[in-house]
Design a protein that fits this description.
Length: 206
């Protein structure tokens, strides 16, 4: 019974992670407007692979080390730069189905790998849960990763699909440019919030 509860908890934690608004979900929404729901799946799967790679690295190596808070604050500044760059690209979109690729795997991976909150979330919440599962099942930490990513994938795909249903309505209006500018501002908001959190954390250390 306890094992089933831990398995269910890992899945639910992934669902929550996928449903929480953030840069990845905003990017998926943006791409769903540009390329439709099917086109947005490319972003979702790139994000899932990126997150799984970083999380696997954390589970494999970093769980046995004490990582100073300052490390998370420093790497966050790289993520801030990526967010601002993406926001500038989204701001320029004026219509559906524009040529070119805004969200490449490299950008999505950098956005994930250099997100301080992502590392903190995994090291402080996910890693302890993963090793509780490891105590019950051999390789339980990696089972946790699979269950988490499955939950994350379901939540992100579902929300992106629901959002993509607005595409036909927006195509008939002159709102599309404003919508993309709104998404650009959301990405910029995440960059500012990440910067403030990182600066606050650094100030507490010095």
């Amino acid at each position: 019974m306890e094992l089933l509860l831990q398995i269910f908890s890992a899945f639910v934690l992934g669902l929550i992670g996928g449903a929480v608004p953030g840069p990845i979900l905003t990017s998926a929404f943006t791409e769903s407007l540009r390329k439709g729901f099917i086109g947005s799946l490319r972003i979702v799967f790139m994000a899932m692979v990126s997150e799984a790679m970083v999380a696997f690295f954390i589970l494999s190596i970093f769980f046995s080390f004490h990582i100073p808070q300052i490390i998370f604050s420093i790497i966050s500044f790289v993520g801030i730069v990526v967010l601002i760059w993406l926001a500038s690209q989204v701001w320029k979109i004026k219509k559906f189905d524009e040529e070119g690729t805004i969200f490449s795997f490299k950008k999505i991976f950098l956005l994930t790998a250099f997100s301080g909150p992502f590392w903190i979330f995994w090291l402080t919440i996910c890693v302890p849960q993963a090793f509780l599962l490891k105590q019950k099942v051999a390789g339980g930490q990696f089972l946790f990763l699979i269950l988490f990513e499955l939950g994350w994938l379901i939540a992100t795909v579902l929300l992106t699909f629901l959002f993509s249903r607005f595409r036909p309505f927006l195509a008939k209006t002159d709102l599309i440019s404003l919508v993309f500018k709104f998404f650009a501002l959301i990405l910029l908001f995440f960059a500012v919030r990440l910067a403030l959190d990182s600066i606050t954390a650094l100030q507490k250390l010095f």
